[in-house]
Amino acid sequence: MTTVDPAPRRRMRADARRNYERLLAEAATIFAEHGVEASLEEIARRAGVANGTLYSHFPTRQALLEALLRDRMQALSDKARDLLDHPSADEALLIWARAAMAHTTVYRGLVTSLMRSIEDESSHLHAACQAVLTAGEQLLNRAQAAGSMRADVTASDLYALINSVSWVGEQTSPAQGERLLAFGIDGMRSATDSR
């Protein structure tokens, strides 16, 4: 099983654990209200901790996002693994791509962070993004082996498509993003696919 937790965590004191959990809860609320570029200082203030406490737990915005998204990204990787048993390889890929799209739009501006992080190995989100990309690649490879997807499509192409249409959906409407995802997946189908 692919894990997206890049490093083991040392056991925290009870008060540090409470601060950590409050910071995550406030980050989730504030990011939902204002997007991922919201003020980190406001997160600390609402959590009732000093800015230094926030930065001791999360040295960067990316580190905070990684902690906040860890379970969601793991669930997305797990969903891909579960869909490997789906009777239709191309339907499994589309189901997963829709789930990935929903994940990338949970907070306004997240898609931009994810696109940057896949290329930046120093980003706290890089390992998690790479795990998601690898999970999607398994579904893509299965669809290619079944002859339903073009052989020249890469996992990076799929990742870029999902993030691109997610951005459009964020800027316009989720329905428009979903429509473009369907067009993009159709464009990846092999010429021998009878759809």
UniProtKB/TrEMBL annotation:
SUPFAM superfamilies: Homeodomain-like, Tetracyclin repressor-like, C-terminal domain. It comes from the Bacteria. PROSITE patterns: HTH_TETR_2. GO terms for molecular function: DNA-binding transcription factor activity; transcription cis-regulatory region binding. InterPro entries: Homeodomain-like_sf, HTH-type_TetR-like_transc_reg, HTH_TetR, Tet_transcr_reg_TetR-rel_C_sf, TetR_SbtR-like_C. Residues 17-76 form the HTH tetR-type domain. Keywords: DNA-binding, Transcription, Transcription regulation. Transmembrane segments: none annotated. Residues 39-58 bind DNA. This is AcrR family transcriptional regulator. It comes from Streptosporangium sandarakinum.
